[in-house]
Amino acid sequence: MSEKQPRLTPLNKNSAVGGAFAGMGAWQLVLTFLPLALAFILVLGALGALIGAGAALVNLKVAKKQLTTPAKALAMVGVDLAAAVVWLVVVVLISSAV
User: Fold this and answer.
1) Which of 21, 32, 35, 87 could form a disulfide with 52 if both were Cys (CB 3.0 to 4.6 A apart)?
2) CA end-to-end span of the chain
3) Residue 53's Cα: distance from chain center in Å?
């Protein structure tokens, strides 16, 4: 009287569980969303959120690349720093125009 269990489909990188973040370590997730988190914490406004979201998308791509861990970490930190510089330049340009 044993009932046959349904066969489960194996998960892959495009599945709903995990999706784009499947296989990423905690440090990769932190560095991926750091620019976006800083934009919201520091209340940088819509421009800060837009720049932070762009940096988060770039970091997500970097996290998925076949690089060594130190190279990946340096690249992601570089993206975070570049986003901060871009935001500062935008702020200076806007404040000098006003």
Assistant:
1) 35
2) 79
3) 8
How many C-alpha atoms does 67 have within 13 Å on its Cβ side?
Answer: 15
Alpha helix positions (H), 1-98: 26-41, 45-64, 69-97
Domain count, the chain: 1
| Domain assignment present for 87 | yes
What gap in Å lies between CA 21 and CA 54, rounded to an integer?
A: 16
Tens digit of pLDDT per residue, the chain (98 long)? 567 777 766 655 554 456 777 777 888 888 888 887 777 776 667 788 888 889 989 998 998 889 998 999 999 999 999 998 998 898 889 889 87
Q: What is the pTM of this model?
A: 0.66
Q: Could you tell me the residue range of the domain that residue 44 belongs to?
A: 26-97
Residue that is written with structure tokens 């599945």 in the block: 15
Q: Which residue has the tokens 């404040």?
A: 95
